[in-house]
Amino acid sequence: QVQLVESGGGSVQAGGSLRLSCVASGYTYSINYMGWFRQAPGKEREGVAAISTGGGFIYYADSVKGRFTMSQDNAKNTVYLQMNSLKPEDTAMYYCSANTLSRYGGSLPEKYNRWGQGTQVTVSS
For residue 19, with 0-12 CB atoms within 10 Å meaning exposed, 13-18 middle and 19 or more buried, which class applies? Predict the structure, then answer.
C-alpha cells in the first residue's frame, strides 16, 4: 500500500504564496502518477495538477496555469505544489493523490486510488 501525508496549508491574503508538500511512503515504486486535487464546501473535487513519476508529463487545470507549479523530488518521495498569486477562489481543502493502478495522469479523481488526508488552504481578500 501507499500512504500519503500532506502539509503546508494555511491562511494567506490574496496575492500571497504557499507551498504544499506530500510525502509518499510504502510501495512508492508502484506509483505511476501523482496529483493534487482540491475541494471547496459544496463543490465537487477538482483536479489541480498531476505529474508522472517517471517524468515527461505534467498537467495543470486552466484555473491555476501560470500560478501553480507542481514538482517532485523522487529521492525524498515527495511532490510539491507551489502556489503563487493566490486568489480567494483557491480556498479549499487540498488533497494529494496517487495512481498505482493505471497510466492515467489527468484530472479525474476516480482514476486515483490513494489519497492523503488533506490540508486546508484559505485565501482572504
Answer: middle
Question: Average of pLDDT values for 58-75?
Answer: 96
* 11 touches 85 (CB < 8 A): no
DSSP three-state, residue 104: coil
Residues with Cβ within 8 Å of 39's Cβ and at least 6 positions away in sequence, in order, are 45, 46, 92, 93, 95
**105 has a pLDDT exceeding 90:** no
Q: Residue 120 has what DSSP assignment?
A: E
Q: Which three cell numbers stand for residue 111?
A: 482514476
Could you give the CA distance from residue 99 to residue 106 in angstroms, rounded to a whole number? Answer: 10
CB neighbours of residue 124 within 10 Å: 11
| Angle ∠(15,108,4) on CA atoms, nearest 5 | 70
